[in-house]
Design a protein that fits this description.
The protein has 499 residues and is an all-alpha fold. Helix content is 67%, strand content 1%.
């Protein structure tokens, strides 16, 4: 019962595991603060559908221009850091390391710190001090624990990080203000915890303070994410491969930016024009859920732009790093094979982080317990919010039920109908091209899409978006649909036990 955190077979062999995520640090908090201007007027404009040629150009131009104006300072800082890295880069294999070094590496790390701090101040104003405080606290603990009790850095640092998040959210910071920095706080926490566990396993020595701070405040990932491992950050200071041309770099950023803006345009303008409030409740639920998903894709593609602009690459092919840094894969979510596939592709870096630092660590306790702890960790890092916790734990239960149920059906009928796509050399009698197998997989795909609609419908554009949704809001939304998704999942689980 490997479940979803034992996959990535198609990526790890290509070096994906040195690249690098459920939801990405709740970066939709950005939309909560800056998307309200778009949504406030939509209800009035779309009570009756306005002419397409009037509504979409005005909505689209306003949305896209405000976004570009808001984001361009971050892009400028990312470019500045990239130029600094190029002045410092050394040989990848370590030979003749001093040749071609224009500025000391410490200066490059400090540039990462300064550009990251400036970006945090632009986006969060004085709230960025909570990020700096956690960084300093975590590094101090890392040094002390590594000196006094080596091997416990991960446990101690992660525990204190979680306590810091809970304390800030409950006692120190106003809810609305905390919601603004929650995403950045989550990405920072993931970086800190990953370094602590890597130090324990010997994969990484204790970094110096400017290296640690440069990694945590890396300007390309500090605002919108995603989480990247320390090894990938450190690779920014190595000599560029000849295969990584500037044209490919520009092309990657251009396409990611276009996709990001399209997802924002679809989420804020198109969906609310296509599906009005008086439509059937399941259509409205699908609209709200897809609007939320596309706002997530907007942030995901935008984070690809900022990370790539600083020099982040993705997979490695024939020894050369490729400009294919990926965060989410919308096609696997909008047309899913299963919920397991959705969990994997919703946020690739965070999925890898959860798999590496939570699931594998907890796996000796049993697969089901490890899965629950994984979703619990994701929920805590996202913040103490009933809605997020309810969605994450529901998704975890749904995914587990789907995985074991489809696995049992695949064994009984010897068919390629498991939650994860079978390998070409699988031993099933009925392969993926068989009509019955295709039909069965389509049924499960439709069920997964219905579950996604049900789970995502409460992520609407109401006033509660700025402070986080309450338990009453979540239960009311699900109650409007009769809790049907939970009943279906429970019925599936019972049926799985009986067969």
């Amino acid at each position: 019962m490997d479940m979803m955190y034992d996959t990535f077979d198609d990526m790890e062999g290509d070096g994906y595991d040195v690249m690098y995520p459920d939801d990405m640090a709740d970066m939709e908090a950005w939309m909560a603060e800056h998307g309200e201007d778009y949504f406030d007027t939509q209800a009035e404009q779309l009570a009756t559908r306005a002419p397409l040629w009037e509504y979409l150009p005005s909505c689209g131009s306003e949305t896209l221009m405000q976004t570009l104006v808001y984001v361009y300072p971050l892009l400028g800082l990312c470019f500045l850091f990239n130029m600094c890295c190029r002045l410092q880069q050394t040989s990848r294999n370590g030979e003749n390391e001093e040749e071609g070094v224009t500025i000391p590496r410490e200066v490059a790390h400090m540039t990462s710190v300064l550009t990251g701090l400036v970006a945090c101040h632009i986006f969060f104003q004085s709230l960025f001090l909570y990020l700096v405080l956690l960084l300093l606290l975590a590094y101090t603990l890392l040094l002390l624990v590594h000196r006094v009790s080596p091997g416990y850095c991960g446990l101690v640092v992660s525990s204190v990080t979680v306590m810091y998040i809970i304390t800030c959210e409950l006692f120190l910071v106003e809810t609305e203000k905390w919601h603004k920095i929650r995403g950045a706080q989550m990405v920072l926490s993931m970086k800190i915890i990953s370094v602590a566990f890597d130090v324990d396993t010997g994969h990484l020595g204790v970094p110096r303070v400017w290296e640690f701070a440069g990694y945590c405040l890396h300007v390309g990932t500090v605002i919108f994410g995603p989480w990247v491992p320390y090894k990938q950050y450190n690779a920014l200071f190595l000599k560029q491969d000849e295969g990584r041309g500037i044209f490919s770099w520009l092309l990657k950023m251009f396409f990611s930016l276009v996709l990001s803006l399209f997802c924002l345009f679809w989420s804020t303008c198109c969906l609310h024009w296509l599906i009005l409030e008086h439509f059937h409740k399941w259509f409205v639920a699908y609209r709200d859920a897809q609007s939320y998903r596309f706002s997530h894709y907007f942030i995901s593609y935008l984070s690809e732009v900022t990370a790539t602009m600083t020099g982040m690459t993705g997979t490695v092919s024939n020894g050369d790093s490729q400009w294919d840094f990926a965060v989410a894969r919308p096609c696997h979510i909008e047309v899913p094979r299963s919920l397991v596939e959705v969990v994997t592709h919703w946020n690739l870096p965070m999925h890898y982080w959860l798999k590496t630092y939570v699931f594998k660590t907890a796996r000796p306790l049993g697969n089901f317990t490890a899965i629950l702890l994984t979703y619990a960790a994701s929920s805590v890092l996202h913040g103490l919010n009933f809605q997020l916790a309810a969605v994450l734990f529901s998704l975890g239960f749904y995914s587990y039920v789907e995985y074991v149920f489809r696995g049992k059906l695949a064994r009984i009928f010897s068919a390629c109908i498991k939650a994860k796509k079978c390998k070409p050399e699988c031993e099933h009698t009925y392969k993926a091209s068989h009509p019955y197998v295709i039909s069965t997989n389509l049924v499960f795909a439709s069920l997964a899409l219905a579950h996604l609609t049900y789970l995502g419908l409460m992520f609407d554009s109401s006033d509660q978006e700025e402070t986080g949704y309450t338990m009453q809001h979540t239960l009311r939304k699900w109650s409007n649909l009769g809790f049907v998704s939970h009943w279906v999942a429970l019925g599936t689980f019972i049926f799985h036990l009986l067969i």
